[in-house]
Amino acid sequence: MKKGFFVIAFLFIFQSFFLYREFSINHKLNKTLEQNYPVQSQSVCDSVLNIYKPESVTVYDGKPAKVDFDSMPELRNFYTLITEEASKGPNFAGHFTFIQWGCGTSCLSYAIVDAISGKIVLFKPVLENSIPSYNVNSRLLTFNEKDEFRHLEGKNFKEIINLMDIESGKLREYYEFLEEESGKTWLYRLCSENVLDGIYSLDEINL
């Protein structure tokens, strides 16, 4: 009788030990899984640019042609600015010069001049809330690129609103500057998204 009692007691203590051990492990595991992890928002345009294969450019290193204002007479009012900037040579897409000037608060105008022919091939009189980025070795023209908003990286929408950051309503846009053999040029939009995409953090989630 006593032997049976001790066997039952031993089995009860043995089972209790393993139940406690399992509870302790699960408790620690749950505490770890309950930690909050910030999740970075995704940028669709990053994915587009990863497969983007732009046309190659040949950088023009000759003397820039005199600006032909007959190609866009309305820009004669900016004669001095445009001629001075164009004389510095191409800074965009191989043989073009991107020239910009202010037109008011958070507003700019820009023109693109062909350094070889001197023709003004593109003019945008009003562009609001946009910062252009470009270089002579690429046809890619970006407005409000990511680097302009790195100071908001990792913050969520609530934090951005608390900062009263009006930049959150801006668009990030990517264009490819295309030209035909005939000389016709245009901007082809590759992608656009909110400037905060790929920058801000989503609300924290529990894993």
Terminal CA distance reads: 52 Å
Tell me the number of structural domains: 2
> In DSSP terms, counting alpha (H) and pi (I) runs of 4 or more, how many helices?
4
Question: β content, as a range?
Answer: 25-35%
Largest sheet: 4 strands, antiparallel
Helix content: 25-40%
N-to-C SSE string, H for helix and E for strand: HEHHEEEEEHEEE
Q: In what order do the strands lie side by side in the largest sheet?
A: 5-6-7-8
Averaged pLDDT: 80
The shape, in one word, is globular
Protein architecture, described:
The chain is α+β, with helices and mostly antiparallel strands and 207 residues long. It folds into two domains: 34 residues; 169 residues, no CATH class. It is built from four helices and nine strands. The strands form three sheets. A four-stranded antiparallel sheet has the order 5-6-7-8, with helices on one face. Strands 2-3-4 form a three-stranded antiparallel sheet, covered by helices on one side. The N terminus is likely disordered.
